[in-house]
Amino acid sequence: VKIRLLLDAFEATGAPAAAYVPIDISREQLAAVAAEIAAAFPDVRVQPVCADYTAPLNLPDLPQRARRLAFFPGSTIGNFHPTEAAAFLRRVRRTVANDGVLVLGVDRRKDRATLNAAYDDAAGVTAAFNLNMLRRLNRELGADFALERFQHRAFFTETASRVEMHLVSLEPQVVHVAGERIVFAAGETVWTESSYKYDRDALDTLVSSAGFHVGHLWTDAAKRFWVAYLEAA
Length: 233
Known about the structure:
alpha/beta; 3 domains; 4-stranded mixed beta sheet; 3-stranded antiparallel beta sheet; 6 helices
């Protein structure tokens, strides 16, 4: 659980967190994480909220005078369209209030070859992940996708600064999903995912539009990823 790194760091400074509010749409996963954190950090008030974090939500009552820190690690912000990312960050800004901060994971923009190799890897890991979406549609919605008739395709679009993932129909075919009949032409694609990549200018533009400014940036040795410490502007 990534949050343990942060809670451990707070304890190491002698200023442990007063409360932790995990948010997840899966009630089962949320309960497991909350129990694990409560056992590991008995002095931290753990107050789980089962909700979709992309929608407005109400937090439980928190300790008075406690500074709020939102933690959104990984590269999930890149899966939002920039307009949606800004709207999400504005909601976070309102939640943390004027003295709050956000620790945000951001996947940095890299050269086309590096990104294409990452999202269309030789081992076929990403392809299997993408095609599994059709398998789940078959299982959960009674669809009849034939996975062998689709092929994974991923590519970086310079102008939009995003990697697009598609499933390409290899032949003309008809698929049924939840009672609907869908006709595919050969070469037609299902656009399954976008992953936006940020350079420093784009990151500054995004966070400033949401009422934050970059207080500090950490990166890895290869300069492929950022952890951004964002302060309320």
